[in-house]
Amino acid sequence: MPSRIGSDLRRARTRREIELSEVEAATRIRVRFLSAIENEEWDALPGGVYTRGFIRTYASFLGLDGDRIVDDFRREVEGVSAGGQDMPAPPAAADVDGKWRRRAGVGWLAIAAVVLVAAIAIFAIPDGGGDRTVGRGPGSESAPPPKRAASGQRKESVPANSPRPLSMRLVANAEVWVCALDESGARLVDGQILQPGAEAGPFHSSSFTVSLGNGDVEMTIDGKRTEIAPSSSPVGYSIASSGALTQLSESERPTCE
Protein backbone atom coordinates (compact mmCIF):
# COMPACT_ATOMS: atom_id res chain seq x y z
CA MET A 1 0.00 0.00 0.00
CA PRO A 2 1.51 3.40 -0.97
CA SER A 3 2.48 5.77 1.82
CA ARG A 4 0.41 8.87 2.59
CA ILE A 5 2.99 10.51 4.83
CA GLY A 6 4.00 13.23 2.39
CA SER A 7 0.45 14.10 1.35
CA ASP A 8 -0.71 14.25 4.98
CA LEU A 9 2.09 16.67 5.87
CA ARG A 10 1.40 18.84 2.79
CA ARG A 11 -2.32 18.91 3.61
CA ALA A 12 -1.62 19.97 7.21
CA ARG A 13 0.73 22.72 6.02
CA THR A 14 -1.61 24.13 3.37
CA ARG A 15 -4.54 24.01 5.80
CA ARG A 16 -2.55 26.30 8.09
CA GLU A 17 -1.51 28.45 5.10
CA ILE A 18 2.19 28.08 5.80
CA GLU A 19 4.87 28.31 3.11
CA LEU A 20 7.84 25.92 3.02
CA SER A 21 10.17 28.89 3.53
CA GLU A 22 8.44 29.58 6.86
CA VAL A 23 8.91 25.96 7.91
CA GLU A 24 12.60 26.18 7.00
CA ALA A 25 13.05 29.32 9.12
CA ALA A 26 11.39 27.69 12.13
CA THR A 27 12.83 24.16 11.93
CA ARG A 28 16.22 24.79 10.22
CA ILE A 29 15.35 22.07 7.66
CA ARG A 30 16.18 23.07 4.09
CA VAL A 31 13.27 23.66 1.70
CA ARG A 32 14.60 21.01 -0.68
CA PHE A 33 14.38 18.40 2.08
CA LEU A 34 10.88 19.52 3.10
CA SER A 35 9.75 19.35 -0.53
CA ALA A 36 11.30 15.87 -0.89
CA ILE A 37 9.37 14.69 2.19
CA GLU A 38 6.05 16.03 0.85
CA ASN A 39 6.70 14.43 -2.54
CA GLU A 40 7.99 11.25 -0.87
CA GLU A 41 11.23 11.44 -2.82
CA TRP A 42 13.05 9.47 -0.14
CA ASP A 43 16.20 9.00 -2.24
CA ALA A 44 16.72 12.79 -2.17
CA LEU A 45 17.00 12.73 1.64
CA PRO A 46 20.07 11.81 3.75
CA GLY A 47 18.38 8.60 4.90
CA GLY A 48 18.23 6.69 8.18
CA VAL A 49 18.14 8.66 11.41
CA TYR A 50 18.50 11.97 9.56
CA THR A 51 15.36 11.45 7.46
CA ARG A 52 13.40 10.27 10.50
CA GLY A 53 14.58 13.33 12.43
CA PHE A 54 13.42 15.65 9.62
CA ILE A 55 10.00 13.99 9.50
CA ARG A 56 9.54 14.13 13.28
CA THR A 57 10.55 17.79 13.48
CA TYR A 58 8.38 18.79 10.51
CA ALA A 59 5.32 16.93 11.79
CA SER A 60 5.70 18.35 15.32
CA PHE A 61 5.97 21.88 13.91
CA LEU A 62 2.63 21.35 12.15
CA GLY A 63 1.03 20.20 15.40
CA LEU A 64 0.95 16.53 14.44
CA ASP A 65 2.17 13.49 16.37
CA GLY A 66 5.75 13.31 15.14
CA ASP A 67 6.53 9.98 16.79
CA ARG A 68 3.45 8.31 15.26
CA ILE A 69 4.31 9.59 11.78
CA VAL A 70 7.89 8.37 12.13
CA ASP A 71 6.54 4.95 13.15
CA ASP A 72 4.36 5.00 9.99
CA PHE A 73 7.42 5.89 7.93
CA ARG A 74 9.50 3.07 9.39
CA ARG A 75 6.70 0.57 8.82
CA GLU A 76 5.50 1.71 5.37
CA VAL A 77 8.76 2.92 3.80
CA GLU A 78 11.64 1.27 5.67
CA GLY A 79 9.74 -1.98 6.24
CA VAL A 80 10.35 -2.06 10.01
CA SER A 81 7.63 -3.49 12.25
CA ALA A 82 6.10 -1.46 15.06
CA GLY A 83 8.55 -0.96 17.90
CA GLY A 84 11.53 -1.16 15.54
CA GLN A 85 11.96 -4.94 15.54
CA ASP A 86 10.14 -8.11 14.61
CA MET A 87 8.18 -9.89 17.31
CA PRO A 88 10.01 -12.98 18.60
CA ALA A 89 8.50 -16.36 17.86
CA PRO A 90 6.63 -17.97 20.79
CA PRO A 91 8.73 -20.52 22.72
CA ALA A 92 8.14 -24.20 22.20
CA ALA A 93 6.17 -26.08 24.84
CA ALA A 94 9.27 -28.06 25.85
CA ASP A 95 11.19 -24.81 26.42
CA VAL A 96 8.40 -23.40 28.59
CA ASP A 97 8.24 -26.60 30.64
CA GLY A 98 12.01 -26.63 31.09
CA LYS A 99 12.07 -22.98 32.17
CA TRP A 100 9.25 -23.62 34.67
CA ARG A 101 11.15 -26.53 36.20
CA ARG A 102 14.34 -24.49 36.47
CA ARG A 103 12.50 -21.61 38.14
CA ALA A 104 10.74 -24.00 40.53
CA GLY A 105 14.12 -25.52 41.47
CA VAL A 106 15.57 -22.06 42.14
CA GLY A 107 12.53 -21.21 44.28
CA TRP A 108 12.97 -24.30 46.50
CA LEU A 109 16.66 -23.55 46.90
CA ALA A 110 15.85 -19.98 48.00
CA ILE A 111 13.32 -21.25 50.58
CA ALA A 112 15.84 -23.77 51.95
CA ALA A 113 18.48 -21.02 52.25
CA VAL A 114 16.09 -18.78 54.24
CA VAL A 115 15.21 -21.64 56.63
CA LEU A 116 18.91 -22.43 57.16
CA VAL A 117 19.79 -18.81 57.93
CA ALA A 118 16.88 -18.55 60.38
CA ALA A 119 18.00 -21.73 62.19
CA ILE A 120 21.58 -20.46 62.49
CA ALA A 121 20.35 -17.13 63.87
CA ILE A 122 18.14 -18.83 66.50
CA PHE A 123 20.82 -21.18 67.83
CA ALA A 124 23.53 -18.51 67.70
CA ILE A 125 21.72 -16.27 70.23
CA PRO A 126 23.40 -16.74 73.67
CA ASP A 127 21.44 -17.44 76.85
CA GLY A 128 20.31 -14.35 78.64
CA GLY A 129 20.33 -12.48 75.40
CA GLY A 130 17.46 -10.26 76.54
CA ASP A 131 17.44 -6.49 76.62
CA ARG A 132 20.65 -4.93 77.91
CA THR A 133 21.31 -1.37 78.88
CA VAL A 134 24.93 -0.77 78.05
CA GLY A 135 26.83 1.24 80.62
CA ARG A 136 24.11 1.11 83.32
CA GLY A 137 24.06 -0.82 86.56
CA PRO A 138 26.85 -2.69 88.31
CA GLY A 139 28.71 -5.27 86.33
CA SER A 140 27.45 -4.00 83.02
CA GLU A 141 29.82 -3.33 80.21
CA SER A 142 30.08 0.22 78.95
CA ALA A 143 30.29 0.72 75.24
CA PRO A 144 33.21 2.76 73.95
CA PRO A 145 32.25 6.30 72.95
CA PRO A 146 31.76 6.88 69.24
CA LYS A 147 34.78 8.19 67.46
CA ARG A 148 34.56 11.78 66.36
CA ALA A 149 35.97 13.00 63.11
CA ALA A 150 38.95 15.28 63.53
CA SER A 151 38.26 18.96 63.03
CA GLY A 152 38.12 19.82 59.33
CA GLN A 153 38.04 16.14 58.27
CA ARG A 154 35.38 15.17 55.71
CA LYS A 155 33.17 12.18 56.52
CA GLU A 156 33.46 10.93 52.94
CA SER A 157 36.47 11.34 50.76
CA VAL A 158 36.34 11.52 46.98
CA PRO A 159 38.35 8.68 45.41
CA ALA A 160 41.67 9.84 44.08
CA ASN A 161 41.00 8.15 40.74
CA SER A 162 37.58 9.82 40.22
CA PRO A 163 37.39 10.94 36.55
CA ARG A 164 37.90 14.65 36.02
CA PRO A 165 35.00 16.43 34.28
CA LEU A 166 35.72 17.49 30.72
CA SER A 167 34.45 20.57 28.95
CA MET A 168 33.24 20.19 25.35
CA ARG A 169 31.96 22.82 22.92
CA LEU A 170 30.86 22.45 19.28
CA VAL A 171 30.79 25.13 16.59
CA ALA A 172 29.27 24.33 13.20
CA ASN A 173 31.32 25.37 10.16
CA ALA A 174 28.44 24.32 7.89
CA GLU A 175 24.96 22.90 8.36
CA VAL A 176 25.41 19.79 10.49
CA TRP A 177 23.14 17.35 12.37
CA VAL A 178 24.36 16.66 15.93
CA CYS A 179 23.55 14.07 18.60
CA ALA A 180 25.68 14.34 21.76
CA LEU A 181 25.43 12.27 24.97
CA ASP A 182 27.18 12.58 28.34
CA GLU A 183 28.73 9.72 30.35
CA SER A 184 25.31 8.53 31.60
CA GLY A 185 23.72 8.58 28.14
CA ALA A 186 21.72 11.77 28.79
CA ARG A 187 21.17 13.84 25.64
CA LEU A 188 23.10 17.09 25.50
CA VAL A 189 22.24 17.85 21.86
CA ASP A 190 19.07 15.96 20.95
CA GLY A 191 19.45 15.31 17.21
CA GLN A 192 19.43 18.98 16.25
CA ILE A 193 20.61 20.67 13.06
CA LEU A 194 23.16 23.41 13.73
CA GLN A 195 23.44 26.17 11.17
CA PRO A 196 26.87 27.57 10.14
CA GLY A 197 28.34 29.49 13.05
CA ALA A 198 25.93 28.04 15.62
CA GLU A 199 27.40 26.82 18.91
CA ALA A 200 26.44 24.02 21.31
CA GLY A 201 27.87 23.91 24.81
CA PRO A 202 30.11 24.06 26.63
CA PHE A 203 29.00 20.80 28.25
CA HIS A 204 30.66 19.13 31.25
CA SER A 205 31.01 15.38 31.79
CA SER A 206 33.73 12.81 32.43
CA SER A 207 33.21 11.47 28.88
CA PHE A 208 31.07 12.09 25.79
CA THR A 209 29.68 10.27 22.76
CA VAL A 210 28.98 12.36 19.65
CA SER A 211 27.38 11.64 16.28
CA LEU A 212 27.68 14.17 13.44
CA GLY A 213 25.98 14.39 10.07
CA ASN A 214 29.31 15.45 8.54
CA GLY A 215 32.76 16.62 9.55
CA ASP A 216 32.12 20.36 9.12
CA VAL A 217 32.30 21.12 12.83
CA GLU A 218 34.90 22.51 15.24
CA MET A 219 35.21 20.67 18.56
CA THR A 220 36.91 22.16 21.62
CA ILE A 221 37.88 19.93 24.57
CA ASP A 222 38.96 21.71 27.77
CA GLY A 223 39.62 24.86 25.75
CA LYS A 224 41.81 23.09 23.18
CA ARG A 225 40.66 22.68 19.60
CA THR A 226 40.40 19.06 18.49
CA GLU A 227 40.88 18.23 14.84
CA ILE A 228 37.85 16.64 13.18
CA ALA A 229 38.62 15.11 9.78
CA PRO A 230 36.55 16.79 7.02
CA SER A 231 33.82 14.43 5.84
CA SER A 232 30.61 14.77 3.86
CA SER A 233 29.33 11.52 5.42
CA PRO A 234 28.12 10.90 8.98
CA VAL A 235 30.86 10.37 11.58
CA GLY A 236 30.90 9.61 15.30
CA TYR A 237 33.37 9.85 18.17
CA SER A 238 33.73 8.78 21.78
CA ILE A 239 35.66 11.19 23.99
CA ALA A 240 37.44 9.57 26.95
CA SER A 241 38.13 11.21 30.32
CA SER A 242 41.64 11.94 29.05
CA GLY A 243 40.18 13.97 26.17
CA ALA A 244 41.28 11.43 23.56
CA LEU A 245 38.95 10.86 20.58
CA THR A 246 38.07 7.44 19.19
CA GLN A 247 36.14 7.21 15.92
CA LEU A 248 33.01 5.06 16.14
CA SER A 249 31.57 2.66 13.60
CA GLU A 250 28.09 3.26 12.21
CA SER A 251 26.51 0.81 14.65
CA GLU A 252 28.23 2.46 17.63
CA ARG A 253 27.11 6.04 16.87
CA PRO A 254 24.28 7.47 19.00
CA THR A 255 21.06 8.28 17.12
CA CYS A 256 19.10 10.31 19.73
CA GLU A 257 15.99 8.25 18.96
Question: Can you characterise this structure?
Answer:
The longest helix has 32 residues. The chain is of the alpha+beta class. It has a five-stranded antiparallel beta sheet with strand order 3-2-5-8-9, with no helix packed on it. About 16% of the residues have low confidence. α4 packs antiparallel against α5. It starts with a helix and ends in a 10-residue tail after the last strand. It is built from six helices and nine strands, in the order ααααααβββββββββ. Among the domains are: 79 residues, Orthogonal Bundle (434 Repressor (Amino-terminal Domain)); 87 residues.
Biggest sheet strand line-up: 3-2-5-8-9
Find the count of extended strands (DSSP E, 2+ residues): 9
Tell me the major beta sheet. 5 strands, antiparallel
Give the H and E element order. HHHHHHEEEEEEEEE
Number of helices: 6
What best-fitting shape do the alpha-carbon axes yield? Answer: globular
* Class of secondary structure makeup: alpha+beta
